[in-house]
Specification:
alpha+beta, 4-stranded antiparallel sheet, 8 strands
Length: about 160
Amino acid sequence: MVAIAGLERLLQEHPFFEGFGQPALDLLAGCAANERFEAGQVFQREGDPADKFYLIRHGTVAQEIRVPGRDPLVVETLGEGDILGWSWIVPPYRWTFDCRAIDLVRALSLDAKCLRGKCEEDHSLGYEFYQRVVPVIARRLWAVRMRLIDMYAPGPKAKL
């Protein structure tokens, strides 16, 4: 188990928290934990409670949509420096994608209930999170849109 002081440092080193003040990082370290996922491990399922917010430190994660009768559709691939899981911030707090480790993944997780509580107690902190997470939500929705357009685009026209 990593000491909280180590978690503060790991939070500070992640690009998502660039510019966060030390008091906020100290506060958030109490919600943090180190996590490890093996290649092929599905660690988040669509529809399950969104109980964590992940900061990817190492490795690659596939965000997938289950499609009946087909292999999962990879919507986006995330890696070092990315965040994973915005569903913790949007009621009803349910995952919108499956997430699978493509290779060994090391991540920091922040407990969603703890994080929501901290944001509620400190509205400046909550506002800072929203300012950083909303653009990620917009990019992820754009990625889904592009993937669906690609999937349903008509094929090449037949030559006569």
